């Protein structure tokens, strides 16, 4: 049970709202689970194709009816630092399965793009849509119906949410998510940010900027700041889809490999052919979703999850709303200070106590549902541990999480939180709905009332900045950046410029129907504005000079314009033809037409 009555009440209303769709979903996966894997009923030709490339032992096992077969869905590629370590995982998993008398096959590879590479570039316009492509790609591999369970190898921004949607679409199959871990600590994130801002001001050149970036992003593993990638790993653990303590162990270490072997054995132990059948669709229920949202708030996680969590929950028949997320933020204390919410990186978070400490503290104060089903087979208390390498150098040992934080400036307790709430709020007003992350914004900067400066492209705003035109207090309105317009790219390249103006003493804010993600920083930003401009949203009526009021504390986003004039004012038009072609954008036209709104997950499903 969860002792906090406010959290119980929010969980109950999600459950009640979702009752009909959840019942249909559970009935469907239970019916499918009872049917079992179809290998034994495949025709000889079907089955022969399914194991043609296997060795003799695996062929013999797959030809029978009772040998377990584990599907591997991998996002490996060697350009992405976070996914490069997955190159060796399939063989580790196959060998571990053989030792257990089972088999394992790579069922599917899924695309994995790096928002760090595409940031501010055309490719970013496909980033959000890649989540749904990943879900479909995984489904293609699993549709061969050869598998008793699946392990999902993914880390970064859209990859994990896409894989979760796929795992829930095949919710009758047990699922374990297997991470690769963060890269070791490089150049401190605040120093990297300082160099970026100096570059934006023209005080250092490209050579100095590239040197700083290369020292920050320097090896295999996820980026070490707390953006969407590391928020994903936190979510998979607190929602019970990881093995305990596995989120933030560095790649290419004996412990990392031991955790991968353990995850393989656990996936084989929870199939329908054993006594611990644990389908993914029953692990992810309303309580698990609420636990995920609370974990997001307690760690100051990515704003992207205001869309991803909604879409993931929907794949399990659960109706999560922005209001639920905002209300849970109000009752969840902020317990972690990891960049951009602090100076530490995720390795410092792990060293301070990591997920085991965080989960234990939240449970002890009644802020999580303990009585959940997890892939590990027990309630959430089983995750209040630290994973270590066993004495044999090959297995995983676990010890209770430390009683005290290893660094109270990085990880604290609900009794002494960094903030009384998670700092992620929904904004409402006559400009529609939006999301704001205020955990990294100083309290005195959370309210801005200033004239609008309107742009239809982030490059237009950058040009205005470089020309010295952005003077005085203002609210930058960057519109036609929603999913229907151009795929809803992240607008991080605006952050250094706005940060410079903020440091000069100007009051500035950003209002956009685009994204900023987990790296939202010190500038107050109303993002994901819904309805978007392309969809007829009021943001499309704003003109230069209109007075905009953004109140991150009160949760309001308003334009101060005469009501009659506002009602008469037409929507702006924008030429979006340049978004339709180049670097594959033409292939995503159907996504731009079919995509839903940001508050419903920005999904094509």
UniProtKB/TrEMBL annotation:
It is an enzyme of class 4 (lyase). Its EC number is 4.2.1.12. It comes from Aureimonas pseudogalii. It holds the Pfam family ILVD_EDD_N. Keywords: 4Fe-4S, Carbohydrate metabolism, Gluconate utilization, Iron, Iron-sulfur, Lyase, Metal-binding. One of its GO terms (molecular function) is metal ion binding. Its cofactor is [4Fe-4S] cluster. This is Phosphogluconate dehydratase. Binds 1 [4Fe-4S] cluster.
């Amino acid at each position: 049970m969860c002792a906090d009555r406010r959290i119980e009440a929010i969980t109950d209303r999600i459950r009640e709202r979702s009752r009909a769709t959840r019942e249909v979903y559970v009935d469907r996966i239970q019916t499918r689970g009872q049917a079992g894997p179809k290998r034994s009923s495949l025709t000889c030709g079907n089955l022969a194709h399914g194991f043609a490339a296997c060795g003799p032992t695996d062929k013999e096992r797959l030809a029978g009816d009772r040998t377990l077969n584990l599907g591997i869905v991998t996002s490996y590629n060697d350009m992405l630092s976070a996914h490069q370590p997955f190159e060796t995982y399939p063989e580790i998993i196959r060998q571990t399965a053989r030792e257990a008398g089972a088999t394992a096959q790579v069922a599917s590879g899924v695309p994995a793009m790096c928002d760090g590479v595409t940031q501010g570039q055309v490719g970013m316009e496909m980033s959000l849509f890649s989540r749904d492509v990943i879900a479909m790609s995984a489904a293609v591999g699993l549709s061969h119906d050869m598998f008793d369970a699946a392990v999902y190898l993914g880390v970064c921004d859209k990859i994990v949410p896409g894989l979760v949607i796929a795992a829930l679409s095949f919710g009758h199959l047990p699922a374990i998510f297997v991470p690769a871990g963060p890269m070791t600590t490089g150049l401190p994130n605040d120093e990297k940010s300082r160099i970026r801002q100096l570059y934006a001001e023209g005080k250092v050149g490209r050579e100095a900027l590239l040197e700083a970036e290369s020292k920050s992003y320097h090896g295999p593993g996820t980026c070490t700041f707390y953006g969407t990638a590391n928020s994903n790993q936190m979510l998979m653990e607190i929602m019970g889809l990881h093995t305990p303590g596995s989120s933030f162990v560095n790649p290419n270490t004996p412990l990392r490999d031991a955790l991968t072997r353990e995850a393989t054995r656990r996936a084989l132990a929870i199939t329908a052919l054993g006594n611990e059948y644990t389908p993914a669709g029953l692990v992810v229920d309303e309580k698990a979703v609420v636990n995920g949202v609370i974990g997001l708030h307690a760690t100051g996680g990515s704003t992207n999850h205001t869309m991803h969590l909604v879409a993931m929950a929907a794949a399990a028949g659960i109706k999560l709303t922005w209001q639920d997320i905002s209300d849970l933020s109000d009752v969840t204390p902020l317990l972690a200070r990891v960049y951009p919410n602090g100076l530490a990186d995720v390795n410092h978070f792990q060293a301070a106590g990591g997920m085991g400490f965080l989960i234990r503290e939240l449970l002890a104060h009644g802020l999580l549902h303990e009585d959940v089903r997890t892939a590990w087979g027990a309630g959430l208390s089983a995750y209040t541990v630290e994973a270590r390498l066993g004495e044999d150098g090959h297995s995983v040992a676990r010890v209770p999480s430390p009683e005290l934080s290893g660094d109270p400036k990085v990880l604290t307790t609900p009794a002494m939180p960094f903030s009384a709430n998670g700092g992620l709020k929904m904004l409402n007003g006559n400009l529609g709905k939006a999301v704001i992350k205020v955990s990294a914004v100083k309290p005195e900067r959370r309210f801005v009332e200033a004239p609008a400066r309107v742009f239809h492209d982030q490059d237009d705003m950058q040009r205005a900045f470089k020309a010295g035109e952005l003077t005085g207090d203002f609210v930058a309105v960057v519109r036609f950046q929603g999913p229907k317009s151009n795929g809803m790219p992240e607008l991080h390249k605006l952050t250094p410029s706005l940060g410079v103006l903020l440091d000069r003493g100007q009051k500035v804010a950003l209002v956009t129907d685009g994204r900023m993600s987990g790296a939202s920083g010190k500038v107050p930003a109303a993002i994901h504005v819904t309805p978007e401009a392309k969809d007829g949203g009021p943001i499309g009526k704003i003109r230069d000079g209109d007075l905009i009021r953004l109140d991150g504390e009160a949760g309001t986003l308003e334009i101060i314009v005469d009501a009659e004039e506002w009602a008469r004012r037409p929507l702006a038009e924008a030429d979006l033809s340049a978004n339709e072609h180049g670097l594959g954008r033409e292939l995503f036209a159907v996504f731009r037409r079919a995509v839903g709104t940001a508050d419903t997950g920005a999904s094509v499903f």
